[in-house]
Design goal:
Mean pLDDT: 92
Distance between the termini: 49 Å
Number of helices: 23
Structural class: alpha/beta
Number of domains: 3
Strand content: 5-15%
Largest sheet: 6 strands, mixed
Oligomer: single chain
Radius of gyration: 24 Å
Length: 533
Amino acid sequence: MKMNMPKDGWQGLKENFSADALSGFLVFLLALPLSLGIAKASEFPPIFGLLTAMIGGIFVSFIAGSPLTIKGPAAGLIVIVAGSVTELGHGDAELGWHLALGAVVVAGVIQVLFGLLKFGKFSDIFPLSAVHGMLAAIGIIIMSKQIHILAGISPLTPEGKSMVEPLELLALLKTTIPNFFVHKEVALIGLTSLAIVFGWPMLKVNFLKKIPAPLMVLLVSIPMAMAFGLKNTEDFKPLLTFDKGFFDILGVNVSFDGFHQMGTFIKFVIMFALVGSLEALLTVKAIDMMDPFKRKSNYNKDLMAVGLGNIIAGIFGGLPMISEVARSSANVNNGGRTRWANLFHGIFILIFLIFAVSFSNLIPMTALAAMLIGVGWKLAHPKEFGHMFKIGPDQLVVFLVTIVVTLATDLLLGIAAGIIFKIILHLFRGVSMKSIVKSEFMVEGNVIHVHGSIVFSNFLKLQAAIQNVGFTEQIHLDVTQCNFIDHSSIESLHHLEADFKAQGGMLDIIGLNHFENVHNSTHHLAARKRKIR
């Protein structure tokens, strides 16, 4: 039985009100603790994590190009945000926050320009193994800080500043782990919260599984903290502190004095714009594949919407936002049908900000750390390493190079190292420098004949030629004269095949039988090389 496509606009609100309102409420329950935790881990005042989620829901939903994604602060940007606060503020968290906001606003303007210039397609030029390596590195960095917080230990440098370097944080574990139970009540709450984060999704009872694990963490950790009598002290702060309400924080908080530190300021603008855009576009792609109605999002419009949201959030003090994958996935699984689910999620956050924000003082920081460890674990899950190895040892090497360089330097250098290493691998395999930068093909009606190699760096032009014929047509892609097709291009071609099928057309790839998987991989997405005759 074919499902009717949900209407958009006001008709969509009327038609899907109950489904979207319920999903929006359930996403709000997930977003509430995560937004607080992400802001705290990013060295921002926690209430401004909720401000970003509210703006992403109430304002961005009207202009977004994706019907099901939820906009808000993301764990994947914690590393960059915290780094910007520390470096721009030189250890002064209050000053660093205001200066980081300037970089967020400028990055938002750049994202709007990305959308206007139709740069949404450029997400396909990043090799997937390097992208996954970047995300895994982010997960490791998140966990490297939050494990200490879980035990109630605030990792500090010898100068007394908050420690942010991931390798230093990882090295500090040899001190934290033996002293894990120094603050035994805090550690007990943290470990209990961690058990819920990892154990709750394994429950066999469907009704209970519908309750978000972060909400259960709050329901358990808050009474535990009250029972233990934990309170803020001068030396140790196991709980969040909110001394202002929603109406107290309204006002312009951005400062552009960071321009005086031009090199540092530009670095973080580029990282906010590049990494934020890439994560947002990858999420939109993933959610489009989950959409039961198989709708195709407008990537460029969504990029502009996120950019505008970041401009607004940055001006008033919020974190940078993206289309966030965990909340967006929850929206699909909870039955959300249109953009109104994102709006409802924002409205519920606004209500919380107005009437109940002081409730957040009861949330133990160790509980938020447990939630963030769960997020970091998903990003750097061991199965990601295994998945890369199954595709091919070469993909695992690119993946690992990206992780190591990111941990040792920063995200920009990490993703750059992954891309450069991938290109070097292609050159060693016999891919010509010309093929690295330019695709060679000829279009004859609905048949596209490809020569040379198809790799991540030259795929965009070929993709545009395929799409220009139309998704409702039957297209034959002849690769019999190709020498090599890399993993990223194979995966992108599989996605295009699905897009054509969803819209009534067909993409037929001719000649793959002349290829064999590199490194004898049996994975269907492995890179392919021409068989030696």
